[in-house]
Each structure stands twice: as structure tokens, then as C-alpha cells.
Amino acid sequence: MRGTRSYDYTSLPLDEKEPVLSKSPRRYNEATGFRRRVLQAAVSCVAIYGLFSFFPFPTSESCDTIDEGYRCSPKTTHFLGQYSLWYSVPSEIDVAPPKGCEVTFANVLSRHGGRDPTFGKTIAYHLLIAEIQNTSTAYPDKFKFLKDYEYTLGADELTDAGRQEMVNSGAHFYRRYQKLVNENTPFVRAGGQHRVVESAERWLMGVAQSLDAEPRKIDVIIPEGPSWNNTLSHDICPAFEGGPDHGLGDRAQRVWAGKFVPPIQNRVNSALGTNLSATSIVYLMDMCPFDTLAHPAAKFSKFCELFSEKEWREYDYFQTLGKYYGYGVGNPLGPTQGVGYVNELLARLTQKPVEDNTNTNRTLDSDPKTFPLDRKVYADFSHDNDISGVLAALGLYNKTKALSNTTIENTEQTHGYSAAWTVPFAARMYVEKLQCKDENEESVRVIVNDRVHPLEFCSGDRFGRCTLSKFVKSQSFARTGGLWERCYD
């Protein structure tokens, strides 16, 4: 019977990197083979496309801009969780370097740019559109476009809008650290997944266009997967990947979905004459960012108009719960996944060898060709889940109390934590050293998506500065290996 309610939310625990496939060996092999053929074709097209494409800087009419990020319909697009296109987050502390201070070091950790859905999700979304078109009895008002909507989204790779995001990101970095970049070539690493590698390449293109020079190549590409120690990709902590706390994020989302989805579900099913499940409603909301990203200029999608501002805030909180309890402070082993990267960062800041026994790659980190300590500018490219662990390991959200899974909390209540504020597409964390007049010691600042963190854990001042020595001392969690020993309990 159409128009009835099915409130059960069934989470589909699809990782940012890999889809969940059938456990049947035959179906697994068929699905894996099909996925490989799809991805090979997509990568080939991207490679050919890259030979003939050029991504200019955006114009004043663009939705996505270098310094503001995505600025169209912000009451919706700034509340899309980790699927938000990057935008400049409000900061209580001036993001400009304090007067009398010179930036002497800059390190960026970046998420890849906007992409198509992961392979498993793109199948799920395609099936959703088919279900709507096969069962709907009406397409009123803003739902009208669904009648003839053609699903054309790919899987896993950057979209043109996502590529432009990364060009803009490189230009944004250059504008902020122009003097430093003019005098120092960035040392660049990337996780091995294709969209991460391409994101690093597009970022380098943005820097090169700013310099009116040829783009440089990536210095180090580190393979991803459980066989490789890689601080840009969590994969080698068994208890985190498959232990009892592995599903914390999904469980928190399931409870919250039971609160916010049913009213939306009733409204949508009543309008369309369908019987869409709670999971399908969340997928329908997911189509807003992904359909936006599918447009070369990231045009605001009609899917976004199907839901109210209130509903988008509820959706954003749904995604925030997934990151907080899945990969951040809310997961007992979440911060530990970022310990290795923090120890690499400390090595760069102090120009001393890496001291770590977690997921660092000792072969690469002990070689000055693959992990130099004498550079002034570094850039690393990764995924949202991995960056969530790094932010947690640094202690940037230690003041954030355990998030409620029954009542929505805003960023003031969460002390600046949300998925959209921390790990949107093209997210970036800048860690900078400053030499200030009348100060004997260099200081450190941490800036996440243009929001300066107060660094209270190392006696940060009103400019968000800690002395280098106090910052290093404050990172005792990372320096002692976090809870890495629990990975093998």
C-alpha cells in the first residue's frame, strides 16, 4: 500500500574508501570485477580529460570561490555534513597573522575534493530514483523534476566541481602563505586512492597558476590498505576496523534518524504516493550534495529544494554524529588513528626525527628524500575519516561533550564541532609557525577551514598562539602512542 510508513532506518555502513559487497564469493567476485571495470573506465576518461582540460580561477559569479568557498544557498549548503562543499568557517579569532608576526612554516592536511558517490552508494541512489519513478502516483510542486530525472552519477572519482575545489584550495593556500611559497617549494604527499592523488595534483595546479608556473609533481604517494603503514589512511588497527566500537557512529545515527526522519518521511510519501523507507529518505537528502557536485559549476541542485532549512540542520547533525562517534573523540579508538600523523607533524615542527610506534611508515619517514625535515611548506592529502582522527588526536575538540543522539546541538554547544565545519569536501587544516617581534620562541597556530582554534590545552593567547615548546608538550597523547596497544586486544 502506497503512502504508508516504514520508519526503520537501516544503516548501510559504507566506508569512504570501499563499498560493502555481498559475502557470497561468486557475487563478490562479480561485483568486484564490475567495480574494477567501471573504475578503470572512469580513470581512463579522467586521464584523457586531464590532458585537455584547464581549470581557471572562478569568476565573481561563481558559487564556489577561492576565499569564501561555496557561497550559494548557505542555509542549505553549509549544512550537508561531510558532503558539504568547502566554505570558510566563521572564526572568533582573526585568521590573519597577528601584527608583527611572520609565518615561517605552513603544513596543510587536506581532504580530497568533491566526488561522485562511492560505488555502493551510487547503486543505492540509482535504485532509489528507480523506485520513486516506478511507484510514484504524483509529482507535485518541487517534486516535479523527479518524474524525468535521469541518474548519471558515477562512482568514487572527483567531479569537475570537485577538481575546481582543489584548484581553488591551492590558490587559497598561496594567497595566505604567498611569501613563504614564493621562497619554498611545498613537499607534497598523498594517499594512494586515485581521487586523493588527483586532488593533490589539482591543488598543485592552483598553486602553480598563482605562481604563473608549471605544476610540480607529487613527491610521495603512499598506498592505502591494511598491508601498508600510512598516516593518511586508517586501516591497520584491527580493533578499530572491526571491534565492538566499530559501529558506534552508525548506532548514534540510527537513534537520531528515528527522531528526525519520520516527519520528513510522512511528508515525502504523502506527496509522491510512495512508501519510501527511512533509509531512502536519507539517501534522497544525500542526492542534494552529489547532484550539486555533478554540475560542472556546482549549480544548486533541485534535490536540495525538497527539504526545509530545519530539515537540513537535522541532516547535518545526523552526519556529525556519524563522524564524532565513528572516527572522532566519541570513539574510544578514534583519536588513536590520528596519532601517527600528529607525530609526523611534531617532527616537521621541531625538525627532529619521527618518534612513533603506531601507523607511521618507518621506511619512508626515516629517509630524508621521502620525509624531509628541513622544508618550510608541507601538504598532505587524505580522506575525511582519517582527518577526523587527526583532529581528535590533536585535542582540538576535547571540550566537546559527548553529543546527544536524541537532541540536536549547534556548533556553539559543540565548541565548533560539526562534520561540515571539520571535514567537508576539500577540507583543510593549516598548522603554522610564526616568529613574532619581541618573542624569543616561535609560536604555533592551528586553523581548520579558516577557523582559528584557541588552543586552550597549551595556554593559547587571544591570537590562538601557543609557544612551540608548549604545543609539543601538550601533545602527550600522541607522543605516548595514544591507545595503540588496544588495537590488538
TrEMBL record:
The name this protein goes by in its record: Phytase A
Gene Ontology cellular component annotations, sorted alphabetically: extracellular region
Active-site residues annotated for this sequence: H112, D384
Disulfide bond sites: C63-C72, C101-C436, C237-C487, C288-C304, C458-C466
Keyword Membrane: yes
Chief location bin: secreted
Top-level taxonomic group: Eukaryota
Membrane-spanning ranges: 38-57
UniProt similarity note: Belongs to the histidine acid phosphatase family.
InterPro entries per record: Acid_Pase_AS, His_Pase_clade-2, His_PPase_superfam, Histidine_acid_Pase_euk
